[in-house]
Amino acid sequence: MQYLTILLPLLLSVVLATYIIPRILVVSVKKDLVVPSETRDKGRLRVPRLGGVSLFPILVISVGATMVCLVKFHILPLIAYEDSDTFVYYMFGIAGLTMMYLLGVMDDLLGVSLTSRLVIEVLAAALIPLSGLWLDDLHGILGIFEVPWWFGIPMTIFTIIYISNAITMLDDVDGLAAGTAMIAFAVLGFLALYVHEYILLMICATMIGMLIPFFYRNVMERRIGWRNIYLGDTGGLVIGYVLSFVVIALSRMGGTSLPEGIIMVCFGTLIIPMFDVLRVAVTRMVNHRNIFQRDNNHIHHRLIQGGMSPMQVLATILLVSVFFILFNAVGVWGGWNLSILLVTDVSFWLILQVVISYYKNKNRDL
Q1: What digits encode the pLDDT tens for the residues 29-51?
Q2: Fewer CB within 10 Å, N- or C-terminus of the chain?
Q3: What is the distance between the alpha carbons of residues 97 and 74, in angstroms, rounded to a whole number?
Q4: Secondary-structure percent of the chain, ordered helix, strand, coil, rounded to 5
Q5: HSE of 121 in the Cβ direction (CA atoms, 13 Å)?
Q6: pTM for the whole structure
Q7: How many domains does the chain have?
Q8: Residue-number span of the structural domain to which 341 is assigned
């Protein structure tokens, strides 16, 4: 019966997203809430940017309705009455997610200044560690084990903001943000199932379910005539915040319910966006440019500049993401030293950048 925590929210979210997306498209086009894309073919229609507006309501409805059914019919216990800490985690998480969602909606519709955006993101991110859910142990990564609260809480806040904005950066290539997030949620959902964390499992199943229509529409629209749609800042912030919550929650189980060092697998699901944002920020600082000013230097831009089509870029990045996840999973379950595992991840990433630079320069010289 535990598989109902997968099937019910998955199916419900797929149905809701399939119904809502076309209606968001109609409103976006009528109100001219569309933007051009630098990675899509010239001459194409501009892309609606309000797709992410549907994510938060679908998440609440799908998870909430599933919880009511499971509890009402005594199918599966979700939270024990004495487990007040878990209840606090989720309540604070919902409050922070609401703030992120409203921030994204305001930014997509009206635009938000960098200062205001940063303040709201910090407040929303702070709610998770204030609930007691923060990175208190790095399990030996770079020789660091237990982390004091005065360092762990700010690190957790920074991590949440970092991941939330990193996901947003992927929303340029059809299906890339949704595909990357679905792979991450699938891995995290498997870990949640393994440790019988059914609410986390329902969240992961719901996120996958609602992203399937986005991915299918954006990847298949050339063949079936559908118009594609951006997740926008709303979608990126919601996905990133939920990913952060699940990653932190599961990482804290390392050494107890999950293997020591599971933090490498959890964060390994997000290596591509996290490493790419870091590379772009360092590049901008070296070139004395504003690190918050967008440019065409992200990994998907560089792959396109190297001669790949958007579909080839999508397949390449998703395959590389799967490789990193499998590699880190093998390392963790094999008992490898986590510092060596991290250094190896960085080395693979640097080799990938060298290869991309080679083909980018070669294509430019043609």
Answers
A1: 887 777 765 554 444 456 787 88
A2: C
A3: 29
A4: 70, 5, 25
A5: 29
A6: 0.94
A7: 1
A8: 4-365
